[in-house]
Design goal:
single chain, alpha+beta, 4-stranded antiparallel beta sheet, 31 strands
Amino acid sequence: METIRIEDRWYVLATSSRTDDRTWVLKNGETFAVFDRFGDIQPIGTGEQGLYHQGTRFLSQLELRLNGQRPMLLGSSVKQDNSLLTVDVTTPDLYVAEQLEVLKGTVHVFRAALLSESACHQRLRIVNYCQRRIALQVTLLFAADYADIFEVRGVRRARRGDDLSPMHTEDRMVLAYRGLDGITRSTEIACSPAPTHLTADRIEYALQLEPHETVELNASIACEPNVRPPRAPSAHVHFATVRESAEKAVQEARARGCAVETSNAQFNDCLQRASADLVMLTAGNPETAYPYAGVPWYSTPFGRDGILTALEYLWVDPSMARGVLSYLASTQAREEAPEQDAEPGKVLHETRKGELAALGEIPFGRYYGTVDATPLFVVLAGAYHRRTGDLEFLRGLWPNVERALAWIEEYGDLDGDGFVEYQRKSAKGLAQQGWKDSEDSVFHQDGSAAEGPIALAEVQGYVYKAKVRAADLAHALGHTARAVALRSEALQLRTQFDHAFWCEDLGTFALALDGAKRPCRVRTSNAGQVLWSGIAHPEHAERAGKTLLEPASFSGWGVRTLAKGEARYNPMSYHNGSIWPHDNALIAMGLARYGFKDKTQRLLGALFDASMFMDLHRLPELFCGFARRPNEGPTLYPVACSPQAWASASVFYLLQACLGLSFRPTPNPDRPRLYFDHPRLPAFLNRVEIRRLRVGNATVDIDLQRHARDVGVNVLRKDGDVEVSVTL
């Protein structure tokens, strides 16, 4: 039998599906945890369960046992604001020898978990509902494997570091590992009250519970890189205090943005979960206001993901965009470093902490192998200007914008043909450097791989949009000649692009040009992002829009990354037939840009319908591209991140596309304009109310009502000077 060879070295290995494990996720700052439905951490399924900090798993097992048995699950959930995991379990029938000692349902255990300041805090509240005294042994089994997240993903290592001898007192245990990078990573487990027995792999409480007696047990698991011996013993942190602090932080973060409420309760749930996920993916991160890309595989800053998430969420909360721009400006490449695919002016792809990154076993410690983050950085800077008018911040950012534009001209166009291409320099880096970065994602009509350098269709659109937005910004900053030059370059690129990428017989744009300038003539969702950028001529935009909504591309749940019938089509693949919510949101905005609001509403409806079948109404990173079947939900992708930042933000961008909501400059900079361009709402939304929407120095409340042929826009409240314009 021939052995299957995995060409993509950064493929996420899967021997089981996350869809049959049904996990819960918590995150705070650089720490996240993946639990099963019992609130346990077990080495099962895809094996990603655990407590992680800075890219390392500090706890690989945490299992609750009652008299040596796994309890019976009554139910579990994560609070709507993502601050707390709650689990209700009870005793099964418990025997001592052959004698039934405790009937099922006799003891109730309420289990809660939350994360704060690189620690997981757990509380067990145990109640005896028996009419007699019972003996109950409560055990927490634990272990720490200190696996790097890339090891969890499937990377095999020739050598690892050393496990150190455990250290303990009567109420705490410290496990530790010294990595090959010289860093000691410690897991400190503190118990309150002190347990009956504490060993290197378990906490045991021998309880004698009187009828209706309640007992509370607490454990805190702290992740401590480079701390040995552990912190000096201190009083156990009270669970309620930590919970109150976590909830307050969430409330403060959500207050920074506007509030959106609609006539559809289920859509409200979708919006609230998405907003809570974005807060969770951002809260506590050392990179201020920067959303981490997703849990579990991408809980770290990604350039492209951060930019697109901030763009999707910009109308709700522009502080995220400011945070993303600030961090990416501070990490912008200053020199050539082939092993990192870095060049002067290039914007970060991703950054990683952990043993493998420190040792260079993976190239992602600080990695720049992306062709699109640099023009998208400029796009976000221009969009932030239109949204806020914050010229003081943007004046300081302008040198970074200029460096990004210089990279486009000097390094991005590898062969001088006017298009931006990529070809990796790092032998360990990504072969494909667009957003579809799996190794088999760029190919010709016959399925053969395209040889580089690769010029992706949507990337040319990003460059076009970057130059248009940079021209607007240059004009606002007083750089008039620069603004004129940038607009001229954008128009030239638009004409050149249309000639090289349009495929008349396919009714869409080619996926890419290969190194020989041969178009990859396949129908992909990339064409929708071409529309988003505005580089397409209107007549071709109309044809491409129709092609995207044909059954080969539109599954009923969204637009597929690759149309059915193309050579490499596989609805279960990562990029060749799956459905990505953020991709669909950009497509929807592109369709709205050219006036196809009926198609925009259709995409919002499809993604909303899909969310109704997802846990917590949370749109995942992606799902499978199988055709929609009556009375059935979409098919989940086995190792998708959930939550994923740009998927969470997509619902806000889809709604914005339908409303035609934008922010436009006026001759008076102190009187900004809020604009609704042909607003439309799908049939499931009769009303949308937007409260506390900040526009410049003003705040406005807007009510939108769906009518038979249009949408009415009413200003409910206005504090400060702002112009509200509507085109019906």
